[in-house]
Structures are given as C-alpha cells and as structure tokens.
Amino acid sequence: MTAPLGKVDAEKLPWAPWRPDDAAARLQAVDVAWAVAGGWAVDLFLGRLTRPHEDLEIVVPSAEAEVLLRAFPAPEWAWRVPAPEEMFPPDADAMSGHHQTWLWDAQQGAFVLDLFRNRHEGGTWICHRDESITASWGEVVASTEDGVPYLRPEVVLLYKAKHARAKDVADLENLVPRMSAEARDRLVDWLSKVHPGHEWLDRLA
C-alpha cells in the first residue's frame, strides 16, 4: 500500500506501531544516537505498562536524522512529514518547517514509528521551546536493563506540559513519586521558564 501524501486527516491514518524493543532491534545497526520519547518513555522508566500506546515516538539529534532515514529506504518503507491536514515528502523545505517524520511500512500499510528530530549542538541537547534549556545527551537519556534508551522523566514531562491532556496528567501522577528530588527540581526550573504559572508547578512543589 502506498504511503499517504498530500491532503489527509492525519488523525485517521492507520498505525501499527513498533514496541520499543522492536525499534532497538531494528536500529541496532544504525549509527545514530536515539531514545524513546512520549508515553513509552514513561513506561520504560517505571518498568511496567501503564496504558495502551497508539504510536511509538523516538528522538534523534537532527544532524543524525538523515542517517536513520536512509536506513529505511523505498519501496519497503516511506518517510512522511506530518502536518495537521497534509503529509509531505521528507524534502528540505518540509523538514525545516516540521520536526516530526513518520515511517510507513508498505507491507503492513501503516505507520510504525514517529521520529522527532531534536535540536542539539554537538553532544548538547537543546530544548526547542526554550534555547536556554540545555543538557548533555547523557543527562537527558537513560537506558533499560535491556539497553533500550529513553528520555528521562523530567524531559518527557516538560514536553507533555504544553497540552496536559488526561493521559499526560496520568503520566505526571505516575512519574512524580518515582522521580529523584534532583529531577523534580530540574523540571520545576524548566517549567518555570517554558510555561510560567503552569498548574503542574503546584503538584511538583
């Protein structure tokens, strides 16, 4: 099945997402730094499944994204840059305007991976919502015992705070009791910069 392109309703497109261990196996031979993000990162940190996941999000440094894109070539695979009402090919214009890229599996006729291209400078992670928030890649990424890398809770919650949907609030409530005092303090500092007065600040106090 051909990957969607042009005018579409992105929310209605089919997904058959990989699990984190699937991604780790497929990316083992690809020379890029990457980490699981979003809800799956929450569950990897907690060591248990807290809810169903409709997709699998990973992050890579933007300069390394092209290596990963080349590792999944046509016709078996297709990359698409999603916008609210349109899917674009992964050309320079589309990728400069959007930081997500979805991977389409032609055999399944569905998307399997949501790739976020992360701002960075060398080995330094840069928050795309506030350039003053930076850390080394090693400070924002942890790994499971099986070696699956994932974003640390304070980073995940920083990004989830923008929308604060019901599932994001549930992730917050599951994570905060397990976070170190240092991680909570860092999240409070970051939220105060990106979302001053955010309701989560009271929960973290």
Describe the structure concisely.
The chain is α+β, with helices and mostly antiparallel strands. Helices cover 34% and strands 23% of the residues. A hairpin with a 2-residue loop joins strand 8 and strand 9.
Topology:
Elements: E1 6-7, H1 20-27, E2 35-36, H2 38-46, E3 57-61, H3 65-70, E4 77-83, E5 86-88, H4 92-97, E6 100-105, E7 110-118, E8 120-121, E9 124-126, E10 134-136, H5 137-140, E11 141-143, E12 149-151, H6 153-160, H7 166-175, H8 181-194, H9 200-204
Parallel strand pairs: 3-7
Antiparallel strand pairs: 1-5, 2-3, 4-5, 4-6, 6-7, 8-9, 9-10, 11-12
Can you walk through the features of this model?
The protein is α+β, with helices and mostly antiparallel strands and 205 residues long. It is built from 9 helices and 12 strands. The strands form 3 sheets. It has a 7-stranded mixed β-sheet with strand order 1-5-4-6-7-3-2. Strands 8-9-10 form a 3-stranded antiparallel β-sheet. A two-stranded antiparallel ribbon has the order 11-12. Helix 6 runs parallel beside helix 8 (181-194). It starts with 5 loop residues before the first strand and ends with a helix.
